[in-house]
Each structure stands twice: as structure tokens, then as C-alpha cells.
């Protein structure tokens, strides 16, 4: 695109690509220089030491032998202390996602047919609209096994839990080839359904695990419980050598199904379906090669002190005494704020020194020298290539994308 000036000259509105390429090369050179600064500084020192040692005679070396032995012993001691005190590496050997039997498959049309018999017309129409916009297809699953659809009881809750949990563990063991009795830590998380004995005890009883197995059962912690469980497993593996940790995450939808008339509680009927996942974590060095991932950092931000965050997903009874989970309209905003805080905390842990220097230089320039400039947003592509986002639908991803591309708010908490 070009425009003609009054004097006949042509001015181009296109960006100066040559300048952009030069700036990109300068930026890459800067990052390379900072990332390899330690090596660039050590090279002259090593060269000087090498030149100095080349002037030593054999007699000089024998005179300094005692000092060299002392230095070598000290270096070996420091290396031993370092390797013994550093955290154990934790690997994700493999994972499994449970796929229910076809008899539980629930198309949208079948859902509508069952729903019209259970809910009044107003509640049915509301759920139908939500379900049509939810992004769910015709191959989702609800654990209906009786002629009385959507009217679940404790036994149906317990049966669903056993089906999905034992099923996903069997799939994971088949993938990894690990024997169940090799697992020393079992952690299960399920927000709504927490029977007695616990779900973790159910696993121990089903597989007849030893009496030295460590078990935990987390409840009422929502979707974040999966990552919280991984954090807990990581901490336990630091104190238990050569061990495996099994983490099972599930939500028992039959226990959370709501048959009342309150719209905020009816949302969960349209968004959640039957399923479970399991991951096998290991701190065995022999599992390094075959593992899919290595756990590097776990960052958690708790917003429970904020009343709005505390009540964004809230279980209580309606005016008719029917129990359900209300999903607040503030849920996405609260999740976005927690994500911003998490990214702010994660940044210093994963970003290269070159990006952190630019960020802090921006803070000093704006706050100390009062330079009018936009805050510097670090390039997270320098740290990792992919984001794995909670599968909460298109709105969730749009919120994440807006946060990551914001030029004004991303690092406001850090400043």
C-alpha cells in the first residue's frame, strides 16, 4: 500500500521490514550473550590459568601436590553435599484417561428425551439452550443404568466411582507395566462424592495393597485438585526414595446431578460428564528415559480469602431442600485473576535471565526514573512452547489468550 505526496513522491505505509530484521537479530544476540555470559567470562580465566600452569616444571607441580589434593577433596565434598541435598527428580511415567462403556453414551437428543420427563418445561428449555452451546458432542457419557433416568442414589454414586477409578487404574498399569504393589503412594481427588471408607481406601482394598502404602483423599477442591494432588505427590516423593505415586482425578457426576429449579445449579448438569484420569509419577532414575515428562515447577495461588472467589462454585440447598452446586457468573473473572497471579509467580522460575533483566529494567525506568513507557511483557516463548489449558470451553481459552497478550495487566501484581 502506498500514497502519493503533493510533490509527486511516493510514501509507503508498509513497515520497514529491514529494520524489523535488524532488531530481531539484535534481540537474539542479546539473549545469546546473556544466556552464555558465564561461559564467556570463564573462558579468559581458564585460558590464563592454562598459560600459567604451562610455565610450571615437574618440581613445581610436586611442591603444589599437597595443595591440589586438599582442593580436590574440598571440591568432592561440596559436590557430594550438593547432590545429596538437591530435590529428587520426579517423572511422569505415563497417564490414562478412562473411556466409559458404550452403554453409558448419551447423545444430546437422548439427553433431551430423558430431561423432558424429569424437569419442568422452563428448566428443560434452559438446559437445552446451555447444552447446545456447551460444545459437548453426541459421544459423552452419563452413568444411567436404570429405567429411572437422572434420579441417582448413593449406590449408583458408589458404582460409578468404582467403575471409573478401577477402570482408569487398570488402563494405566497396562500402559506402564508397573505392578500395583510397587506403588507406595496413592492420592485420589473427587470434589463432591467422598464416601466412608474413602475412595483411596477402596483402591487399597480392591488391589490388596500393603499396609505401608501412603494414601490421601482430597475433596471439595474443584478442578484445581488434580494439580494440587500432583504437588502433594511431588512433596511425598522427595522423602521416599525409588517409589511410585499414583494420582487419580475424577468427578462423580451422578453425585452432583441437580433436579431442582435454580438455574445456577442446573449449569453443572450441562457441563460435566462421566470420566476419570490417572497419572503415574516416579522418582526412580531408571524411569527417566521412558517417562513422558519431568516435573519442574508447581505453582499454586489460593484465592479463597476473596468472598467472590470463595462462592464462585458453591454447594448448598435450594428453597426446596435439593442439594446442588451453583456456578457463579464471576467464575471466569476469578479464574482469570488466579491465572494472572500464577503466571506472575511462574515467570521468575522459568524465564531466562535475559528476559528478567529487561523486565526489571522496565520497572526501574518507569518507577524510579519516571520514564513514560509501556510495561515490558516478557516473551514466554523463550521459556516454553505450549500451554495446556483447562478444558473449560472456548470462553476459558479466550480469557487465557486475553491475559497472555495484555500489555498493561499481566505483571501488575509483580510491580
Given helix and strand content, the structural type is alpha+beta
Strand order of the largest sheet: 7-6-8-9-3-10
Number of contiguous helices: 15
Largest sheet: 6 strands, mixed
Write a compact overview of the structure shown:
This protein is α+β, with helices and mostly antiparallel strands and 415 residues long. Helix content is 48%, strand content 14%.
List keywords for this structure.
415 residues; alpha+beta; six-stranded mixed beta sheet; 12 strands; disordered N terminus; transferase; membrane; FAE1_typ3_polyketide_synth
Q: What can you see in these coordinates?
A:
48% of the residues lie in helices and 14% in strands. It is α+β, with helices and mostly antiparallel strands. The strands form 4 sheets. A 6-stranded mixed beta sheet has the order 7-6-8-9-3-10, with helices on both faces. Belongs to the thiolase-like superfamily. Chalcone/stilbene synthases family. The chain crosses the membrane at residues 32-53, 65-84. One of its GO terms (cellular component) is membrane. One of its GO terms (molecular function) is fatty acid elongase activity.
Amino acid at each position: 500500500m502506498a500514497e502519493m505526496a503533493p510533490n509527486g513522491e511516493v510514501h509507503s505505509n508498509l513497515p520497514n521490514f529491514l529494520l524489523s530484521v535488524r532488531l530481531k537479530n539484535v534481540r537474539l544476540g542479546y539473549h545469546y550473550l546473556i544466556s552464555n555470559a558465564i561461559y564467556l567470562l570463564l573462558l579468559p580465566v581458564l585460558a590464563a590459568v592454562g598459560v600459567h600452569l604451562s610455565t610450571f616444571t615437574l618440581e613445581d607441580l610436586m611442591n603444589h601436590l599437597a595443595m591440589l589434593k586438599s582442593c580436590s577433596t574440598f571440591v568432592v565434598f561440596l559436590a557430594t553435599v550438593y547432590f545429596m541435598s538437591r530435590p529428587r527428580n520426579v517423572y511422569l511415567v505415563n497417564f490414562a484417561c478412562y473411556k466409559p462403556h458404550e452403554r453409558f453414551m448419551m447423545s444430546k437428543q437422548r439427553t433431551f428425551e430423558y430431561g423432558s420427563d424429569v424437569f419442568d418445561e422452563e428448566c428443560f428449555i434452559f438446559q437445552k439452550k446451555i447444552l447446545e452451546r456447551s460444545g459437548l458432542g453426541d459421544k459423552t457419557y452419563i452413568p444411567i443404568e436404570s429405567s429411572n433416568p437422572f434420579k441417582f442414589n448413593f449406590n449408583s454414586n458408589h458404582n460409578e466411582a468404582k467403575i471409573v477409578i478401577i477402570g482408569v487404574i487398570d488402563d494405566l498399569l497396562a500402559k506402564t507395566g508397573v505392578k500395583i504393589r510397587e506403588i507406595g503412594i496413592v492420592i485420589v481427588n473427587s470434589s463432591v462424592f467422598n464416601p466412608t471408607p474413602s475412595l483411596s481406601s477402596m483402591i487399597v482394598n480392591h488391589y490388596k495393597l500393603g499396609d505401608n502404602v501412603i494414601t490421601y483423599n482430597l475433596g471439595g477442591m474443584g478442578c484445581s485438585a488434580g494439580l494440587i494432588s500432583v504437588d502433594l505427590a511431588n512433596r511425598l516423593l522427595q522423602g521416599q526414595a525409588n517409589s511410585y505415586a499414583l494420582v487419580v482425578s475424577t468427578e462423580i457426576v451422578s453425585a452432583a446431578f441437580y433436579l431442582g429449579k435454580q438455574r445456577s445449579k442446573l449449569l453443572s448438569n450441562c457441563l460435566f460428564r462421566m470420566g476419570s484420569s490417572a497419572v503415574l509419577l516416579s522418582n526412580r532414575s531408571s524411569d527417566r528415559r521412558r517417562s513422558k515428562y519431568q516435573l519442574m515447577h508447581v505453582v499454586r495461588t489460593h484465592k479463597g480469602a476473596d468472598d467472590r472467589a470463595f462462592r464462585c462454585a458453591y454447594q448448598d440447598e435450594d428453597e426446596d431442600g435439593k442439594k446442588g452446586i451453583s456456578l457463579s457468573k464471576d467464575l471466569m473473572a476469578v479464574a482469570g485473576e488466579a491465572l494472572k497471579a500464577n503466571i506472575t509467580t511462574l515467570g521468575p522460575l522459568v524465564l531466562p535471565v535475559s528476559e528478567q533483566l529487561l523486565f526489571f529494567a522496565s520497572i526501574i525506568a518507569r518507577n524510579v526514573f519516571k520514564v513514560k513507557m509501556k510495561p515490558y511483557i516478557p516473551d514466554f516463548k523463550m521459556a516454553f512452547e505450549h500451554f495446556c489449558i483447562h478444558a473449560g470451553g472456548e470462553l476459558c481459552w479466550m480469557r487465557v489468550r486475553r491475559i497472555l497478550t495484555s500489555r498493561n495487566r499481566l505483571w501488575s501484581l509483580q510491580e
